[in-house]
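Example record for the data management plan.
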Amino acid sequence: MRRVIKRFVIDNKVLFLLLVCLILIYFILNILVAFHFKYLLEFVVYYDVATNLEIICIVLLGLYVFKLCSGLFRNVLIFKISNILDEKLTIKTFRQILLLPYLYYKNRTTGEVITRIKDLSVIKSFVSKLFCILFIDIITVIIFGILPFNSGI
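Corresponding structural encoding:
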């Protein structure tokens, strides 16, 4: 199992790097979009810059659209990685089940063998969620946890 996961990460390192880049872009855009209202209030109301309001709104609308597109690509990439992982785990598990000796099948009922196959879906779900948590949450916490300390906030 460990070799399968290690081989999977090595084979798909380009997808994982792309996923990390999309995660960073997505979170940076989330931060930028969160400050749009503050920016509008500060510069339009206080400094009376209503002439540039249309340009500011178009730029912020572009940020929203870009944020949504990057979130879509991020989710598609996560889904693709999950499907590749599911396929590799399924093939390896079926191969191991089929290579079991005849006595294994003779001593067990059909329900026990089918239960092993159904357990595979639980394992696939766990490993897929684990990868998503590792590459989304932990990387985000590390990067955005270090930034405030380096910036002096």
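Summary line stored alongside the record: The chain has a mean pLDDT of 76.
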